[in-house]
Specification:
The protein is of the alpha/beta class and 332 residues long. It folds into 2 domains: 16-243, no CATH class; 246-332, no CATH class. The protein has helices at residues 3-13, 48-68, 96-117, 126-134, 149-163, 185-196, 198-201, 222-230, 237-243, 245-261, 266-279, 295-303, 309-314, 320-331; strands at residues 24-28, 32-36, 44-46, 75-83, 88-95, 142-144, 175-178, 206-216.
């Protein structure tokens, strides 16, 4: 189980605060990155609100450009693709006509491949491909990655901070940031922007299942983090299920699985979730099969409460790093 899943899951769910509040990171022209506890009096200060405002402007610009291109009909999705590891945002928009075109082209390619070599992997129905392509951002023709200059510059500097590579800094004057920004706050900023865009989205000719959300890049949570947490901070459950009915099926199956585990004695419940953690993504009862992150196993253990502590302690030799977090949170 990834401790990152627990850490980012706690942040997005509100179980923990951002780390680094009251601390600042200074980047200097002589290629140094220094952490200080008092706000510098000189240099260019970049706050989380500055990044939020710049991202909001970027999203509005993307919407305006999309409309100006003559594509504003039956729009069903808008997403802010977020990479907190490298510090970047990409905007994706798609409409039903474009989706159908992509699906038709893929269906023809797949059928040709199937008839050429008989590989059943290519023997896909159009309906299956439609579901597969509908929210596959990388296949959308409408991608906006040219950020406003100030946002691009700030994120480039943040990338060097996150990567710990001051030698690549290329700045003419000092910049300083709130340290909390590097604690995956780019996700929270993007979520706030989605909510700020509510009125702007009204410019789009939306389908009934239109959905606007934040998505995570591979390496910082990917599809599992997107469907299990990020998207749920952007839209109601009803709208999520309307846009992605397959997510509803997965949620219902997961709830049934949890209910079945709760029928067991407490010790066995603890052992179940520890085993899920231990066996990982490809285990028999992996939460990934329900499109969840490993954070969900942590949640289930915490929800067992203080009476589960002795049984958790019995299993410390199996997944010590994660179970230590569970025990610490049960004590608080």
């Amino acid at each position: 189980m990834s401790s990152y899943d627990v850490d980012i899951g706690k942040l997005i769910s509100g179980r923990r605060e951002l780390e680094g509040s009251g601390t600042y990171i200074i980047c200097s022209p002589d290629k140094e990155i220094v952490e200080v506890s008092t706000k510098p009096e000189t240099g260019i200060f970049v706050s989380s609100k500055d990044i939020e405002d710049a991202l909001y402007d970027f999203c509005k610009s993307a919407i305006n450009e999309y409309i100006a291109e003559g594509n504003n009909q039956d729009v069903y999705t808008f997403s802010i693709f977020t990479d907190t590891a490298y510090g970047s945002y990409v905007i994706y928009i798609n409409n039903v006509e474009s989706l159908n075109q992509s699906v038709d082209e893929a269906y023809l390619r797949y059928q040709e491949k199937f008839h050429e070599n008989g590989d059943e992997d290519y023997n896909q129905s159009r309906e299956h491909l439609y579901d597969q392509f509908k929210h596959a951002e990388g296949d959308y023709p409408f991608m906006y990655e040219e950020m406003p200059e100030r946002l691009e510059n700030w994120l480039a500097i943040l990338s060097q901070i996150i990567e710990g590579e001051p030698q690549y800094l290329d700045i003419a004057e000092p910049y300083f940031f709130e340290k909390s920004i590097i604690d995956s706050q780019l996700f929270l900023i993007a979520i706030d922007v989605i909510h700020r865009l509510v009125e702007d989205f009204k410019q789009l000719d939306q389908t009934e299942d239109f959905i606007a959300y934040v998505s995570a890049a591979d390496g910082v949570g990917g599809d599992y983090l997107t469907t299990s947490q990020l998207i749920r901070k952007c839209v109601s459950e009803d709208q999520l299920y309307r846009a992605m009915p397959e997510v509803k099926k997965k949620d219902m199956a997961f709830r049934s699985a949890i209910a079945a585990v709760k029928q067991k004695p407490l010790r066995e419940q603890v052992q179940h979730w520890v085993t899920v953690i231990e066996e990982g993504e490809f285990g028999e009862n992996s939460v990934h099969s329900f499109w969840k992150t490993d954070y969900e196993s942590y949640e289930q253990l915490v929800e067992l409460g203080h009476t589960a502590v002795p049984y958790i302690q019995e299993n410390m030799h199996r997944e010590k790093s994660i179970l230590e977090i569970v025990l610490a949170d049960l004590e608080n």
